[in-house]
User: What shape does this take?
Amino acid sequence: MYALVDGNNFYVSCERVFRPSLVGRPVVVLSNNDGCAIARSNEAKALGIKMGAPWFQIKHLEDEAGLVALSANFALYGDLSDRMMSIAAGLGHRQEIYSIDESFVDLTGIRGDLTERSRKVRERILQWIGIPTCIGLGSTKTLAKLANHVAKTAERNPGVYPDHFAQICHLGRLNKVELDEVLAATPVGEIWGVGRRISEQLGEGGIRTALDLTRIDLATVKRRFSVVLERTVRELQGTPCMDLEDEPPAKQQIACTRSFGHPVLQLVDLQEAITEFACRAAEKLRRQDSHTAQVLVFIRTSPFRAKEPQYSKSAVFPLLTPTSDSREITEAALAVLDAIYQPGFSYAKAGVMLLDLQPAERHQFMLDLSPPIEEQGGAGHSDVEVQTVDRTRLMTALDQVNGRYGRGTMLLASAGLRGPDRAWTMKQERMTQQYTTCWSDLGLVRA
DNA sequence: TCTGGGGTCCTAGGACCC
DNA sequence: TCTGGGGTCCTAGGACCC
Assistant: This one.
């Protein structure tokens, strides 16, 4: 049996912890650059605001309906997520943190009333952290996901599913007839792994509900769609096909990409941006103890400004010796930028991606074809080894300084020294405080 | 005027091998 | 006129997730 613990409207709930006046009001959290809505309170959903709706299209609801919009405060959400996850972990023996607001918990070997146990964990998260959650239980991860959907829907839209499923839904306790009723009430597009495209195609074939999907022929699914969808159908039928991943595998690629706050035309501005993205990506790379062998850079204009000339280009720089050194990665990235930059365009977005990642302990040295150096006396380390050690220590020091005194305390000169005055700096006009991770942002209590 | 960021997996097709 | 069989590896693109 698996449980899925999921924070309700997570980013909005995080903001409400420190600003209780937002409870009961329509609230959205906006993406970087205050671009579009990436989290909505129930009241905002009731206003008809869709996931991903551009802010400028819903801004009028500020005056008309009292809508509150906030800039994304990821430092706050990440910290509250950690706290929520540590309590959710107590539900069972093993936990997979699936996203910032969701975790699967393996309930194998847990005895007693699982619904009651889940309810207690839910209450503890609500009381200790302040985040409301829903918990779904099922015999496979896909069914636990479905159960979670049922729990959330029953809480928000009475009538779709039986009321007692609100907040906690244990599908494992249902008999066949009851389970079929739940499946029949669930549109196929709500199933984990069935997106918009596949949902449309299934609909054309008359498959509209989750129940229809469980009754489809497995061989046909595999042939007409893929092994991925076949696995989803099996899981829906109660056969586990996906394991819990309690130890997250190392990432296979690492990216840092941003849309700019203003259009960027000058190469020098792009160079600063690419330097920063490359250094951030390199930092993430070192955190997981990997090296990269390929650096990809892309730049592009805005596809939304259709009247302006469009340009989009990316290219890869292969590194002869895999590395996690910010200087080498930045040098490669800037070389790519030079090669793909075209003057005369208004650039809207750029990014750096590190590909072909490998464990740092695997060393690939250059084949040295130069003539052997005459005996210099003393054994000691070879030049290559000394360089590697120095470089590692330098990068460790860099990460430690920035970790302790804040991002950007020590940086490469090509990142520029203009700080927030840079042409491309993100727009974040509605930012809340970093209440839990920054001393100067602590909340004030007025007596 | 204003439209996010960061990932994963699978498949088809081409290049290449013997 | 007639042109095999069985592989691997890589890449681009599509689908999905939050």
Q: What stands out?
A: Residues 38, 98-102, 192-198, 226, 228 of chain A lie near DNA strand C (CB under 10 Å from a C1'). Chain A has a mean pLDDT of 93.
